[in-house]
Amino acid sequence: MAAQALPFLRWSRSASTLRACSSSTATPHRLLSTLRRPAAAARCESGSKAMLKGMDFSELENWVRAQGFRPGQAMMLWKCLYGNNAWAHCHDELVGLNKDFRKMITERADLKALTVKDILTASDGTRKILFSLEDGPVIETVIIPCARGRTTVCVSSQVGCAMNCQFCFTGRMGLRKHLSTAEIVEQAVFARRLFSDEFGAITNVVFMGMGEPFHNIDNVIKASSIMVDDQGLHFSPRKVTVSTSGLVPQLKRFLHESNCSLAVSLNATTDEVRNWIMPINRKYNLNLLLGTLREELCLKKNYRVLFEYVMLSGVNDSMDDAKRLIELVQGIPCKINLISFNPHSGSQFKPTPDEKIIEFRNVLIQGGLTVFVRLSRGDDQMAACGQLGEPGDYQLPLLRVPEKFQVAL
Ligand code: SF4
Asked: Which parts form a coiled-coil structure per UniProt (predicted)?
């Protein structure tokens, strides 16, 4: 579920802030080239080897036992991968493991699922990392530092997306591939590895990069459980947020199986508008989506869903929309996040002016709702909400604009 995208400058950073597999005397160029290890070399290393970052702890323990080692050694390996600020990325970094155990891992396992292709810096300090997958496609991950000591990593869950939300650049790509558990987890590991020295702790994870997370739910639930493991990356479940466009059966499953936070990208107050700008609504309409949340959230204590609402000028930003929104979310423990639309090439929408966003927000507050306004971050490098990805020549078609909105566009 993409946030909207930002523009970026090419990356430059000091060697001291970059952790790589090579020695501490490496120059920034050498470090970056290590991270950009050629795909061919990476392929040799994977082959039929086990991908360690695709396993949760109990799977890792079983795998270690199956290789003839004590399950207790699995915890030391887990901590090398995720804990103690190690974030091991290559076999040389498996420090503190017994020699035989390390030799076995070198021969039979791979630690790495992604290769850094480039890092771009937006004028507001937001970073966009482009990762190459082993089989060629590129995904994007965004690191968003915040003045209040919070730094968020926005991870992707798919290459492209099948949902075809009309305001989203990623949606133009169509679905190219689901990401594996390891490919998702490693985005958060890289965020810590590359930026902890510069930004301090990476505190939050949002699944708001490329893709609809619930379309890849098995890998997303597993990846988020690895991220919150208290012996590993140890993110607070409240600070790991999975965002969906509204896949209702998967949403129910997530609420039953995961203790992480949920965000729902709502973006409209009528089925007419939502059917157009978010075609998933034709399958799971507002009534079904919100009714399900109302029922399910009664069963969870101290849990509030975050509704995201991208403000599109003349489409969903009237004061009548604000009043309908208050009615629609009645009985659902929630917060509302109003998001300024980030234009991208070929987009047909215009952003709502700031004054109107404030007016809209004030109506919601008067209606008793908790409301945040999300400022655009990283949009000069196409790193803001809804701007990720590269559709290329083949793009999903835009849907017919309902007649009454043609003037607004
Ligand atoms: S098309 Fe929709 S669901 Fe997919 S990434 Fe974009 S906003 Fe998220």
From this structure: none
